[in-house]
Amino acid sequence: MIFCFLSRAVQLASTSSTLGRQLCSACANKPVLTLFTKKPCPLCDEAKEVLEPYKRRFILQEVDITLPENSAWYNKYKYDIPVFHLNGKFLMKHQVDIQKFEDQLTKLEMHNDGNH
Which UniProt keywords apply (predicted)? Predict the structure, then answer.
């Protein structure tokens, strides 16, 4: 599920249909931060709290590695969650490295701004 952090309506709509894509158009150029997680995951909850001040700058996509369709991620990350990918590339695991996150996020934002 993808969360745009603009409004609850956008969050719900962003998961399906053309309407979701239209409502989430403001999110279209935001980087996607993927969190590989499972329930329960206290470290994942802590990581999301650390990232809270940045939430308007990215789209958070959570992947539950315990779901059958995510078995490849489970096999890869079962001992490492939380694991984060930024725009599909591995970024960090176990805890948030806020400096690394900020640096990579800023690079992506500058790249996206240059493309408009």
Answer: Electron transport, Transport
